[in-house]
Amino acid sequence: MIFTNPLWLYLMPLALVPFFLALQKQDGYPALQFVPLDRLSQGVTWALRTAGAVAIGGLVLGVSGIALRERVIQRFGQGAHIVLLIDRSSSMNDTFAGRQPSGEEESKSAAAKRLLKDFVIERKHDRFGVAEFSTAPMHVVPITDHKGIVLNAIDAIDRPGLAFTDVGRGLGMGLSMIDEDVLPGSRAIVLVSDGVAVVGRRVQESLRTEFARRPVHLYFLYLRTEGSNSMFATPPPGAEDTPQALPERHLNIFFESLRIPYHAYEAENAEAVKAAIADIGKLEQTPIVYTERTPQYDLSRWAYALAAIALALLLAAKLCARTLKPSWGNAHVS
Amino acid sequence: MNDTQRDLAYAIPWRTSSVRMGAHKSYLSGGAGLFRDIVPLTTYPDPRRLAIRASLNDPFERLLVRRAEQLSTIDVAVLVDVSASISFEGRINKIAIASDLAEALAVCTERTGDTFALLPFDDKLRQDLVLWRTLSRAAHRGAIESLRRTIPHRAGSEGIAEAGAAIAGSRKLVFLISDFLWSEETARTAADVLSFHDVVPVELRDSLELEDLPRWGLLNLRDLETGRQRLIAMRPSLKARWLELRREQRDRITRVLDATSREMFTIRDDIDWMRLTAHLLYGAT
């Protein structure tokens, strides 16, 4: 409970005035001891005094700006802390068919944007962070529960991208973002990409140690362009099977060799992306602690409403009040 | 003061023993007036009233004289309750009504040569307003004017005992003007101290204080004597109970006063002078 103008609270003792002073206009009466006592009158008396006190108190509280303090409540729920690691290379702006989007066609990034946004909105208790990578990784949003920022960050992923796809450093950034997150809960990195470059041997080694240091789930959502290599397909014998020739396949192999919970999804259209995201959502259902913020709530309107009700009661009593004065002048003229 | 007010008259159903010539029956005999009896000249040595025929007829040959009723004065005392409850102002100002009544009675005494005393009281006899019995018209006016200007403020009517003691002595015609919102004890005291006198209780009532109370609504009343404040939610059933309670209280007081005084005369809202005169001359009708 906080007050924006607490000085007004010095007027609060005025609320006791109705209990000590008769505020209504009174008529003298010769002898009240011959007036019958009755419960209803006593009840009305106390009700009106209370109404007076409530009216004054409500107005004082209203003027002093009573409000409920902003609160942060910790709750338990199902979910995870998820870093969305999104490819910003220029090929993401093409359709799944590998063309510039035209007409009603949707680019890969637009589809990813739409589906990821649905995912973020749907997952109420998850905390999300967003990182992007192309030539160099970009730290966009740290892991946070402010859904608005995350959604805005995802909105930006269909901007025209850059040339290269440095997935290794992107993963490094995702891991460092997870390091910065201190709240308990299961962590996951969702890597969204449409084709990767080779991860260097030394980068692979450092990633291997990094992944070994902390429990992280890894999801690789590969947006495969039509005609490009599948990452699960084993090349026909005789074909070149090197990371340079089939980088996705070898990245997949590398991820599988990390001995962490890992899932790879290959999506060739928006429906497949959707199914993959739904699957990730199903898998990331561990208990987590999340915080819920209740903003400061202004109670002064309720205080004014209470005062208004009390004043209405008093007004009604005022209108019901009768006087013993004759309606015409004094009958006795001496 | 109008003519009806001037026409107020009173009579007493008893004989006074005052020696001054006045207008009321007395124990004294005199020369003029109503025939009373025939007594020997030796008993009433006034040869002017010689009853010749009776003297001639007297077997003992005494000289007899006629004796007539001597009319004498009486003392009139007006006791006015000026406790705070009298200051209730509804349709009437009770102090003004009491002053009017006192003034009419003063005029009445001046006409017949009776003495007039005015003794306002609240919880004590109000020495500042009191007028001891006198024939002085100027003193009557002065006392009545100061009574008219009084603003009652003290609670209680116990001063009736002191006022009663102040007028003890020969039998007097006493007007006791009050609202009689008394405790039974005060009424009993009044009855006791005034029991020797011819008491005419005059009750001052305002229809707004009882009969004309609103049937519905909120009344915020302050007791004029104690200052206590009460909010009363009026409704017909409560009003009926109120009237009933008040009637019972009035019955108790009148029962006590009736034992020693004349029947109570009630002034409600305005003085009906003719009815008051009739009440004073012939008793309650």
Helix content of chain B: 25-40%
Query: Beta-strand level of the residues of chain B, as a percent range?
Result: 25-35%
Shape of chain A: rod-shaped
State the end-to-end distance of chain A: 65 Å
Largest interface summary? A-B, 32 and 47 residues
Write out the CATH superfamily name of the largest domain in chain A. von Willebrand factor, type A domain
Average predicted confidence as pLDDT of chain B = 90
CATH level 1 class label of the largest domain in chain B: Alpha Beta
Poorly predicted regions of chain A: none
Counting structural domains of chain A, the number is 2
In short:
Chain A is of the alpha/beta class and 334 residues long. Helices cover 37% and strands 22% of the residues of chain A. Chain A has two domains: 2-69 and 296-320, no CATH class; 73-292, Rossmann fold (3-Layer(aba) Sandwich).
Description:
The complex is a heterodimer of chains A (334) and B (285). With 334 residues, chain A is an alpha/beta fold. Chain A has two domains: 2-69 and 296-320, no CATH class; 73-292, von Willebrand factor, type A domain (Rossmann fold, 3-Layer(aba) Sandwich), CATH 3.40.50.410. Helices cover 37% and strands 22% of the residues of chain A. In chain A, strand 9 (217-223), helix 7 (247-256) and strand 10 (262-267) form a beta-alpha-beta unit. In chain A, helix 2 runs antiparallel to helix 9 (300-320) and helix 3 runs parallel beside helix 8 (270-283). The model of chain A has no long low-confidence stretch (mean pLDDT 83). Chain B has 285 residues and is α/β, with parallel strands linked by helices. Chain B folds into two domains: 21-72, no CATH class; 75-282, 3-Layer(aba) Sandwich (Rossmann fold), CATH 3.40.50.410. The longest helix of chain B has 23 residues, at 236-258. The relative contact order of chain B is 0.15. The model of chain B has no long low-confidence stretch (mean pLDDT 90). Chain A binds chain B through residues 22, 24-36, 38, 40-41, 44-45, 48, 317, 320-326, 330-332, 334, and chain B through 85-93, 96-97, 99-100, 148, 179, 181, 208-209, 213-214, 216-226, 228-235, 238, 241-242, 245-246, 249, 269-270. Strand 13 (321-322) of chain A pairs parallel with strand 8 (217-223) of chain B, so a sheet runs across the interface.
